[in-house]
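[SOLVED] Need 3D model of a two-part complex

Original post:
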Amino acid sequence: MRQITTRISKLIAVAAVAAAWAAAGLSTALAAGASGDAAKGKRVYIAVGCFMCHGRAGQGGAMNYPAPSIAKVEMPVESFVSFLREAPNDMPAYSANVLSDADAADIHAFLQSLPGRKPAKDFPLLNN
Amino acid sequence: MSKRSNSPDAGRRNFLKGATIAGAAALATPVTANTTSSDPARVNAKAAAPGPRLAAIETLPPSKDPVSQSTSGGDFMVDVFKTLDIEYLSMNCASSFRGLHEAVLNHGGNTKPEILTCPHEEIAVHMAQGYAKIEGKPMAMICHGVVGLQHATMAMYNAWCDRVPVIVMGGNIIEANKRGPGAEWVHSAIDPGAIVRDFTKWDDQPTSLQHFAESAVRAYKVSMTPPMGPVMLSLDAELQENPISDAETLKIPKLSKVIPPQGDSAALAELAKMLVNAETPVIIVDRLARTPAGMVRLVELAETLQCAVIDNGGRMNFPSRHPLNMSFRRAIIKQADVIVAMEVNELWGSLNAFSDRIVRSSKPNYKPGAKVVTLGSRDLYLKSNYQDFGRYQEVDLTIGGDAEASLPTLIEQVKRLIDDGKKSAFEARGKKLAAAKLSAVEQAKSDATVGWDASPITTARLCAEVYGQIKDEDWSMVGTSIRLTWPHRLWNFEKPHQWNGVSGGAGVGYNLPASLGAALANKKHGRLTVSFGGDGDFMFAPGTLWTAAHHKIPMLYIVQNNRAYHQEYMYLQAMAARHGRGITNTATGITITDPNIDYATVARGFGVHGEGPIIDPNDLAPALKRAIAVVKSGQPALVDVVTDPR
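Solution:
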């Protein structure tokens, strides 16, 4: 809840850095633009603990600060991987030693495959 | 016995007056017996030649050993409790307070106080904490000498941090020569209160019944004076058990509560001027509402100013759906030119962003030049050892005084300063805030749809399902393991009893027993008590369920079962990522699996209706309906829901 603006601004900043790196060809493993494997990504997402803060459905959660929903993540894969390497605030930064670019790309594919949000008006329980 | 002039129970007084004479006579006899048995002549009788004196001793009848008495100090203690209108006494039975225990039952009739049997002292204190936050007054608990108090301490610390009045008592045997060998020695102390003195407002060890009466009334008064907190009385077993020897002089003092102090009127006038002249004033509150009047007054102030309110959730301070409630739009702090914090314990945490990285860092959340004002009782009473006061926050004006008591004066001062121009500007500001609030509500609903059909069940779906079942009842939510997120984002909290805050000290094991204490207070009002508790918290004090069943306390308890001590799971993951040597090995010591715990079966074992484990979100509604039917019949019920972490 609190600090959400700070967090979002950092996300934007890191995403911008990541995009610049990607444009410079620093993410060589992804340079070919190969998309990840969503099924494998789901397994990795659980195994490496992304679900702990962001939920198994990518719905988001909280640690000391809110962990945003990442279902149907819109960030390009190159930016996504770079973001993981330099994650801000509470979010751990995942180096290539513990999470390869390929695994990260698989996670990205999994997140993009998730249903994400739906119109709230279609849920009577959310309109009490 | 009591000489209190306005005591309603003259019959009791007369009964004890008569009984005291016999009691005093009985008390006198053992003194004679002890004198006789300690006579050195008797000890050496076999070695000495039998002179006339010794011969006389040996021919005397045996020393008198009285076997009954008609009064006890415990009776008087019970009369004091009745005078203070103490409704409940939670306990785990122990010999060091057997005298008082018996007096509560047979002198007091087990009413005011009524005994609550608890399988752990931590449960007994936490029940008192939860009860006080709903009922607005303390109940009492009593624990065994030394070891019982050691069990009680963490819960006392939670109550201390939560600013909640709880009257804790412990048995003791003060005189060394009165202690039996073994347990009575290891369960006695010369200063029992030492272990809790850093997190109690006041403690004492009375050495006479008159001393007890005065200290009990003082303890009540101290605990209820803002900032409120737990107090502790050590009760000598001899004082509890022995006959009353001074009934004619005993008097229960009149309780005169301290009127919570208002902030200085000139300072409040200055604050009013700052608020009225501010472009973007923001009010932050935490433990503001001591009574139902607190929320009403805060609403009046906010609506008068049409300003944003951020509720940190320590009490039911502000309606969750009020158009000015910006609790989930905290970025507004960055726009504020005047920030007023009312009864906020750790303001620094609300005004600064802290980064838990290899190099820990922080920076302010509020803009340079913004004026920060505090209004509250927190600055009036601090202790040193435990650091619950938080990091020092620089402020421009500190007004010492109870915020709830100060609000009428502040509101009046604000209203005096508002002219038509200001009123028009405030209305425009209020419309913008209302639009932002509407947007936040729609965002919450949209966020809740993500993973709606997932299993494990999302916490958003769980909260939506529960609210769907209780929204038309007179409900009271008294615990959450889901932080102050989904219920407060989705539900309509609008009545003073619909929320009562969190643990205070973040001591795990609070939620289940404190919820039960709150449910006890809600019972007589016919409210439907609901609480979300984590599985990790549950396992600290599962025996609470037996107390719930035994005393027939209705409560819907939902175990948010994420099968881990989840906060620590995230911390450990962060450490593993930071150290870069493997991030898939953090479950050890964290998860509560292998075997998975079947909480519904555990509940049934304690005599509580159990549902679950619920894995499919579509099974939630029928399970909740069954459980609520049980609760509405006057019994507790538990629903075990396997959820996603947060």
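Edit: The beta strands of chain A are 61-62, 66-67.
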